[in-house]
Amino acid sequence: VVAVYGTLSDLLSVASNKLGIKATSVYNGKGGLIDDIALIRDDDVLFVCEGEPFIDPQTDGRPQEELTGSHTDWLTLNVGGRYFTTTRSTLVNKEPDSMLAHMFKDKDAWGNKQDHRGAFLIDRSPEYFEPILNYLRHGQLIVNDGINLLGVLEEARFFGIDSLIEHLEIAIKNSQPAEDHSPISRKEFVRFLLATPTKSELRCQGLNFSGADLSRLDLRYINFKMANLSRCNLAHANLCCANLERADLSGSVLDCANLQGVKMLCSNAEGASLKGCNFEDPSGLKANLEGANLKGVDMEGSQMTGINLRVATLKNAKLKNCNLRGATLAGTDLENCDLSGCDLQEANLRGSNVKGAIFEEMLTPLHMSQSVRGR
């Protein structure tokens, strides 16, 4: 009779001294290998040995595995080199259709391999197996810090622990940080600009700049495709050759911005202010606003020589005193558009809708089809 305290090594040392042997292993009365002192309870009968297999003294000295129908409920698993002691009922009862249940429901039904200590060999990760075993013990998902839940999930799927899979999927979903959809501020973007080499391509596709103050910044050649720039202040910004394809510029202020060679195909700039903008590139590179939504925009006094506004929507827009010399306006919706004072020499308005448009003091000639009507 001994008092159990300290560690398992302390217990083995006490047993060695009392029995005059070099004790290396401790078993309970049913042959279960004890690898943690916390598994020992008051009045337990324990057996120690020097490494040989457990032999029940009540079985005439025969090894337990030779006894027909006498397999113990206690067993030891060697999972990836780490030992776990548990009961057969723990592995079988909670998830009777799992792989572990089928492996240990009937003795040697799967021909399970054992190591020199009699532990059943399982070639899986021990750190991911431990939470699974604890779940089978008490039905609670408890994962220590530093353990990847995805790894535990893969092991649960491998062993077919269906009820645990659902718990893990929920836990993984809840552990993911919430997506941050808040707009990027001017300070954050300027820091981003300063940290990027001048020759590197800046890709800002799909980013949210809604309401940001980006005025007077050098934004040349930046890819803003499909970005949210609604209600932004881009006044006096340099957007030369920037890609604003399908970007949302609704309600933004771009007064006096440099838009030479800008690409704004199918962009949405409804209600934006583009007064005094420069779209004219001396090198001949033309700004492309084909298919853009420019309803109600104010582009008064802008330089737009050669601009491509084909099939764009400029309904109710203000283009007063704009330079549209050589512009492509074929198929453009110019309904109720104010084009007074515009230079439309050599502009192409074939197929455009100019119903209710104002052309007073307009410079000529125009390239129009017979279907074009205005006043």
Describe the structure.
The chain has 375 residues and is mainly alpha-helical. The strands form 2 sheets. It has a 3-stranded mixed beta sheet. The C terminus is likely disordered.
Provide key terms for this protein.
single chain; 375 residues; mainly alpha; rod-shaped; disordered C terminus
End-to-end CA span: 113 Å
Q: Which overall shape is indicated by the principal axes computed on the Cα atoms? A: rod-shaped
Radius of gyration: 39 Å
> How do the helices and strands follow one another from N- to C-terminus?
HEEEEHHEHHHH
Oligomer: single chain
Strand content: 5-15%
Task: Count the E strands.
Answer: 5
Count every helix, treating DSSP H or I runs of 4 or more residues as helices: 7
Given the helix and strand composition, which structural class is it? mainly alpha
Pathway: Protein modification; protein ubiquitination
Protein name: BTB/POZ domain-containing protein KCTD9
Pfam family, one: KHA
Domain KHA: 1-66
Short description:
Substrate-specific adapter of a BCR (BTB-CUL3-RBX1) E3 ubiquitin-protein ligase complex, which mediates the ubiquitination of target proteins, leading to their degradation by the proteasome. By secondary structure, this protein is mostly helical. The protein is built from 7 helices and 5 strands; from the N terminus they run H-E-E-E-E-H-H-E-H-H-H-H.
What's the SSE blueprint?
Layout lengths: L7 H12 L5 E3 L19 E3 L24 E6 L2 E6 H6 L5 H6 L15 E3 L3 H13 L10 H11 L2 H14 L10 H9 L181
Parallel strand pairs: 3-5
Antiparallel strand pairs: 1-2, 3-4
Helix pairs in contact: 4-5, 5-6
InterPro entries: 5peptide_repeat, BTB/POZ_dom, KHA_dom, Pentapeptide-BTB/POZ_domain, SKP1/BTB/POZ_sf, T1-type_BTB
Pathway: Protein modification; protein ubiquitination
Keywords: Phosphoprotein, Repeat, Ubl conjugation pathway
